[in-house]
Amino acid sequence: MPDILSSLARYGYVAVPIWVFAEQMGLPIPAVPILLAAGTIAGTGRMNLVAVTALTLFAALAADLFWYRIGSAHGSGTLSKLCRVCLEPDSCVRRAKNFLEKHGVRSLLVSKFVPGLNALAAPVAGTIRVPWWQFAMVDALGILLWASTFELLGFVFSNQLEKIAALAWRLGVFVIATLSVATVLFYVAQKYQRRQRFLRKLHMARITSAELKKKLDQNEAVTILDLRHSLDFLPEPYTIPGAIRISMEELEKRNIEIPRDRDIVLYCTCPNEATSAMTALKLQRHGITRVRPLQGGLHGWRDMGYPLHSEFGLPSQVESAGPCKGCASPVQSQRSQ
């Protein structure tokens, strides 16, 4: 047995759960190789497959419950911080929300297999207030499915994987690590260049909350589009007064509703407004050229203390910054009516 597998066989019951926990907390260290290795060692009889699976379940579930709690307590702000390491944060957040909205809590069963969704499923579930016991139960099943799949692959193909590990060890850990790092850096560089090219295509001036407020006060002809995902809207059912709610997914069908003879202001609650920028490019393809993303999005407007309109029909004046402080709750709005 190669030295690397011998070391894992000796310390595996500690190393595997720590490694899995670190990955689920957000560190860029993939857990699949160590799960395969654990299954390979179990195939030689030097580790107990049931025990290592139980430890993996405990570690991954602990990390997921942590992110669920953070998402539940801090809402969309958690996703903004979590996705800053992603080169296309708005896209990855929206994909996660679309997947969760389409498949519901069942998406947690496969979230560990889907790049991007793995890191975001738990905080998104917390943000939309999935009951914690339901989240924990389905997430635990998903973790067992994920861990067992790769551990069993290692177990079944233990002889072949052990030979591959021996060959890799002879080639040298340094060479493999260098190639791995070079591959990751090349991928990151490509993503970064594509993102920069995308941003350079966007030759338009953003509009500030103060500028938009002035236009509204002066009754200028301006159309405001609320691009928030439905999962973002549910916890905060408020819009800028006069805004039309159109999601990114509905844009192609509903672009006819958008006038061509005035400024179109877009806003969302995205980490860096890339959703607004992509929407602007889509609208330009439909002949809508006077498009201006709102700087800071809905949160920037709210933090300025400007009025918000309740989905229940009554305007609410925000008196201070924070998560919609001063906004009338849906119950208050109904009572007022």
What does this 3D model show about the protein?
- The protein is of the alpha/beta class and 337 residues long.
- It is built from 15 helices and seven strands.
Topology:
Blueprint (H helix, E strand, L loop, with lengths): L2 H22 L7 H12 L5 H26 L1 H7 L6 H15 L13 H11 L4 H25 L1 H14 L1 H29 L7 H9 L4 E5 L3 H4 L4 E2 L4 E2 L5 H4 L8 E5 L6 H12 L5 E3 L3 H7 L3 E4 L4 E3 L12 H7 L1
Parallel strand pairs: 1-3, 1-4, 4-5
Antiparallel strand pairs: 2-6, 6-7
Structure keywords:
single chain, 337 residues, alpha/beta, four-stranded parallel beta sheet, three-stranded antiparallel beta sheet, 7 strands, 61% helix, 7% strand, elongated, disordered C terminus
Biggest sheet: strand arrangement = 3-1-4-5
Number of helices: 15
- Principal-axes shape call: elongated
DSSP strand content: 5-15%
Q: For the record, give the distance between the C-alpha atoms at the N and C termini, rounded to a whole number.
A: 75 Å
Low-confidence stretches: 314-337
Arithmetic mean of pLDDT: 76
Proportion in helices: 55-70%
Whole-angstrom Rg = 24 Å
SSE-based structural type:
alpha/beta
How would you sum up the major sheet? 4 strands, parallel
Order of helices and strands: HHHHHHHHHHEHEEHEHEHEEH
Number of strands: 7
